[in-house]
Design goal:
Layout lengths: L1 E12 L6 E12 L3 E5 L6 H8 L7 E6 L2 E2 L5 H11 E4 L11 H11 L4 H14 L15 H13 L5 E5 L7 H16 L4 E5 L3 H4 L4 E6 L2 E7 L2 H9 L1
Helix pairs in contact: 3-4, 3-5, 4-5, 5-6
Length: 238
């Protein structure tokens, strides 16, 4: 089943001499339980693509479907519900609220969705345990290591049990060791919990953990490759 499907997706900003074609006729898909990375130089349309798929922006042309639902057919309230129930977001700086504990940060999407805080915290603890960071649940982000903040960010993205995770340059401000550890965690969300991931990255080491890599150039898909990640991993581990 296709979790994500775009057809002839375009996004134009401005008009006339200042018109910018940020995305130009992009058609792609992400299957259930698949990890897809999108790569390309700065300004090629990677983040624009992610924002359109996540319903954070509207296309100038073309369609986005999430689990078969055409986003253009949804009003703002329905779009908000779809994002909250079916999509988890991970951003470059994780966007953990500094005044909240790891537990409350993780529970926040559920609380915003109308769940009682006590019930939301029970669910949040489950995901913090799965990500092996429950022992830091009472700590605020500034009291967590970079790796612990990564795990909390993933727990928060997973707490609503979304089918799709959208990750926008989540390793952009991490050193190489922390970035690879984060990529391993993302891979586990696919392999252990069957989620689908669409990841925007500029780092080929991170994209090597994906099943497929889509390359953008000037707002268009220029290339697509299949990774032999598991085979390579078996050789290294052997």
């Amino acid at each position: 089943m296709k979790i994500v499907e775009t057809e002839n997706l375009s996004r134009i900003y401005g008009s006339g001499e200042v018109q910018v074609n940020a995305l130009d006729g992009v058609s792609l898909h992400v299957d259930t339980g698949e990890f897809v990375a999108v790569m390309g130089p700065s300004g090629c349309g990677k983040s624009t693509l992610l924002h359109l798929i996540g319903g954070l922006d509207r296309p100038s042309e073309g369609t986005v479907k999430i689990e078969g639902k055409d986003l253009s057919s949804l009003d703002d309230d329905a779009l908000t519900d779809l994002r909250r129930e079916h999509i988890g977001f991970i951003f470059q700086f994780f966007n953990l609220l500094p005044t909240l504990t790891a537990l409350d940060n993780t529970a926040l999407p559920l609380v915003l969705g109308g769940m009682k805080p006590a019930e939301a915290q029970v669910k949040a603890v489950e995901w913090l345990e799965k990500l092996e960071v429950a022992d830091r649940s009472t700590h605020r982000p500034e009291e967590l290591s970079g790796g612990q903040r990564q795990r909390v960010a993933i727990a928060r993205s997973m707490v609503t049990e979304p089918s799709l995770i959208l990750a926008d340059e989540p390793t952009g401000n991490l050193d190489s060791k922390a970035a690879e550890e984060f990529a391993v965690l993302l891979r586990e969300t696919v392999d252990k919990w069957g989620r689908s991931i669409l990841l925007v990255t500029h780092d080929p080491r991170i994209s090597s953990f994906a099943d497929r890599v889509i390359y953008l150039q000037d707002g268009k898909i220029s290339e697509e490759t299949q990774n032999h990640r598991r085979m390579a991993g078996e050789v290294r581990n052997g």
